[in-house]
Design goal:
The complex is a heterodimer of chains A (about 400) and B (about 80). Chain A folds into three domains: about 5-45 and about 95-170 and about 260-320, FAD/NAD(P)-binding domain, CATH 3.50.50.60; about 70-90 and about 170-260, D-Amino Acid Oxidase, Chain A, domain 2; about 335-390. Helices cover about 35% and strands about 30% of the residues of chain A. Chain A has helices at about 15-25, 50-55, 95-110, 160, 235-245, 290-310, 315-320, 320-345, 350-360, 370-375, 380-385, 385-390; strands spanning about 5-10, 30-35, 50, 65-70, 70-75, 80-85, 90-95, 110-115, 115-125, 130-135, 140-150, 175-180, 190-195, 205-210, 215-225, 250-260, 270, 270-275. In chain A, the strands form three sheets. In chain A, strands 1, 2, 8, 9, 10, 11, 17 and 18 form an eight-stranded mixed sheet that branches. Chain A has a seven-stranded mixed sheet with strand order 6-5-13-14-15-12-16. A three-stranded antiparallel sheet of chain A has the order 3-7-4. In chain A, strand 17 and strand 18 (about 270-275) form a beta hairpin. In chain A, helix 1 runs parallel beside helix 3 (about 95-110). The longest helix of chain A has 26 residues, at about 320-345. Chain A is globular, with a radius of gyration of 22 Å. Chain B has three helices and four strands. Chain B has helices spanning about 25-30, 55-60, 70-75, and strands spanning about 10-15, 35-40, 40-45, 65. The chains are: A alpha/beta (about 400), B alpha+beta (about 80). The interface of A and B includes residues 135, 154 and 173 of A.
Chain lengths: ~400, ~80
């Protein structure tokens, strides 16, 4: 096995596999490493993605699609719900198959993939990243690389080793737990994703029910790390499932944490770029991050591949990727971040009232602007809270 | 205090492997870079851990605890 590459990508999740594929397609020698013994496992995800956003990265294949979603429902704690059409067609995917297919695509265009291979350190010379120290099936090796892509997910250490500040504050960190439940027939609509806003069961976060077929669903929750002090995320979920879905089977237990900070300000250093959850690029309201990570990898490599061919991987050049990211998602993510803060500051009564009033509106006949205006008329305090969002043009545009 | 700012008698973080799902939620919030996730193993570098308990608070399954030990036992 060789020990020098143009690009080493750490982490074979969706972001890493897309980065590896783009680099290999650009004629570069690429190594994609994954610390787990199997790509896509263990799943740490609620598995909902936008169909349109994912299309450029993986052709539709029923093998990785578990459910096609036609509506979202937001439930309050008193049993009322507002049903919203999805902004774009939404799929609930099987991450084991989805991630594997993406990595396979990278391998098929020439990227070398190694599983059971962990990055344990960076080679840094004159403040520039020059390679990765790895442990691969018990062997320690030093791999030299002209560019390292940190795609090592929520637990990312690679970017940190390169000097980036990656540790999120607790108020911007979701702690998540999820059960894959069987026996869900007649307990849900297999084409509707449910969100539940219940402060007592998901402090600072929300609960979800995402169908994975006629009788199975991902049922989980996130809580904000600074709010859920009294009990574990697991214990909240056990209460929710016992109340709402008795007599179901837990087919899988899924855990994880995710930063909801908005993307890191610095996404590149000399010889390194960071993408996906490692770069905090998940949606700072819902924490959805699969498509965002893949798009980020695409943007990063659109800058990095020409930079590698030109022999210039200094931060000054690679940071063109930051500009692309900010242009496409910067304002929107700032606004979503603020929406999360506003929702977090609402007590349960106000949340319940908001959902109840929205549920009474003829939503299908209304534009988003009309919906928001109507809700604001009934809640002047909310109008005050969202004034900065109006300024950004995210709403009422 | 050693070079990581650890007070020797404070104890260290220990993981209950019966509960840990190796999700890495703890690794992301560790200010000392004292935790490391492998294929299905969580390593805690005792010489870096300051027992600040941040990891305990974010563990979805509460699989982490602080093991306290006396100054003599730590030697």
């Amino acid at each position: 096995m060789r020990s020098d590459y143009d690009v080493v990508v750490v982490g074979a999740g969706p972001s890493g596999s897309v980065a590896a594929r783009r680099a290999a397609e650009g004629g570069l020698k690429v190594l994609l490493i994954e610390k787990r013994q199997e790509i896509g496992v263990p799943v740490r995800c609620a598995e909902a993605i936008g169909a349109d956003l994912s299309r450029p990265f993986l052709d539709y294949d029923p093998n990785w699609v578990d459910a096609t979603i036609r509506a979202f429902e937001v439930h309050n704690s008193s049993g009322q719900a507002v049903r919203l059409p999805p902004v774009e067609p939404t799929l609930v995917v099987n991450r084991k198959v989805f991630d594997y297919q993406l990595a396979l695509k990278a391998a098929r265009v020439g990227a070398e993939v190694r599983t059971s291979t962990a990055a344990v350190g960076l080679v840094i010379e004159n403040n520039s990243v020059k390679g990765v120290m790895i442990e691969s099936l018990g062997r320690s090796e030093t791999i030299s690389a002209r560019l390292v892509v940190a795609a090592d997910g929520t637990e990312s250490q690679v970017a940190r080793w390169a000097g980036l500040k990656t540790v999120p504050s607790f108020s911007d960190y979701y702690v998540g737990i999820e059960f894959l439940l069987a026996g869900m027939q007649s307990k849900m609509d297999p084409q509707i994703c449910e969100y539940h806003l219940d402060r007592s069961l998901a402090p600072g976060g929300y609960l979800w029910v995402f169908p994975k077929g006629e009788d199975t669903a991902n049922v989980g929750l996130v809580i904000t790390a600074d709010k859920g002090n009294n009990a574990s995320a697991l214990s909240y979920l056990e209460i929710f499932v016992a109340r709402r879905y008795p007599n179901t089977s837990v087919m899988a237990v899924i855990a994880g944490g995710i930063a909801v900070t908005c993307a890191l300000k610095t996404l590149a250093t000399d010889g390194l770029v960071v993408v996906g959850d490692a770069a905090h690029q998940a949606d700072p309201l819902t924490a959805g991050g699969i498509c965002l990570g893949m798009i980020a990898a695409d943007l990063a490599m659109s800058v990095a591949v020409p930079a590698l061919h030109a022999g210039d991987v200094r931060a000054s050049r690679l940071r063109g990727y930051e500009t692309l990211w900010q242009k496409r998602f910067g304002k929107m993510h700032q606004a979503l971040y603020q929406v999360r803060k506003i929702l977090n500051n609402m007590d349960q009564d106000r949340l319940d009232g908001l959902v109840r009033r929205a549920s009474e509106l003829p939503l299908v006949e209304m534009s988003v602007g009309q919906i928001v205006l109507t809700l604001l008329k009934n809640d002047p305090l909310l109008l005050f809270e969202v004034r900065s969002l109006i300024a950004t043009g995210l709403i009422l545009k | 205090m050693d070079r990581f700012g650890k007070k020797e008698s404070e104890g260290k973080v220990s993981v209950d492997v019966r509960l840990c799902h190796f999700c890495g939620a703890c690794v992301a919030v560790c200010l000392q870079d004292a935790m490391f996730l492998r294929n299905s193993g969580l390593t805690i570098h005792a010489n870096r851990c300051t027992a600040c308990e941040r990891c305990l608070r974010v563990c979805p399954l509460r699989a982490l605890t602080i093991v306290h030990h006396s100054a003599e036992a730590a030697v």
